Amino acid sequence: LLLFSSTRGLRSIPSLSQFRRLRYLWINNNKIQDLTFLIKNYYLTELYLNNNELTDISGALKHLCSLQILFLHNNELKKLGKTVKELKGMISLQTLNLFQNPLAYDPDYRLYVIYFLPSVQLLDRKLVTQRERESALHLYNPKRAWVMQSIGFGKRVDTSLGTAVGSSSCTQPARRPIIPSVLKWFGNVQEMDLLCSFCRVPFEDPEDAVLVRAMTRSLMEFSSVDWNKVATCQERWLKNKAEEPPEKLTVQFR
């Protein structure tokens, strides 16, 4: 169901509760100040309220969970936090216009909307970029941003669950680091690392330096036990003799 009632100079609209299946509503270019007439229109997907005289939308739109397009530009909305809070429940909202409202002059207005309304993809006729989302996260949730950046340096490794740990699909042999000749006199990596910290002898390839350093610090250990060979509590009660500890296989990766 579609209802079009724009450019009529309307100041108020009677309740639209009889139109329960209303999905598209144009009431832009009027003088509307109150939205209580929308209290029963849960199926709205597109709502055009631009160019009116709205000063507050609290309690009027939060029930519109199916809304995908919302135009509120060129009104008198002043409180950014209060306005965004009203829209938080709109998980399907993708297009939002809030420009030409007093709240849009807040210096962090765009990042604030992007962070608290993550489903919005087109804000004020401009696509939301990944860089803007990252900036918004750093600004409003720096702790979460730090955690995400610290896990794999902010990158995700696309590896299937069936891939064995430590295995590689590359057929080329592993490249050995080209170590400066002065370090070849030392018998172990710890001594090489100690010497590097004093004399700072450069490697021919920076990646070799990273690899040598990683060999002294980076270590992963995986242990596995065959639980089929471990006795259950009931089996232990039936046996009076001491049991041998289960075999544990431990593999280390650098």
TrEMBL record:
Under Gene3D superfamilies, the record lists: Ribonuclease Inhibitor
Taxonomy, superkingdom: Eukaryota
A Pfam family found in this protein is LRR_9
InterPro entries xref list? Leu-rich_rpt, LRC72, LRR_dom_sf
Protein name (Swiss-Prot/TrEMBL): LRC72 protein
- Origin organism is Chloropsis hardwickii
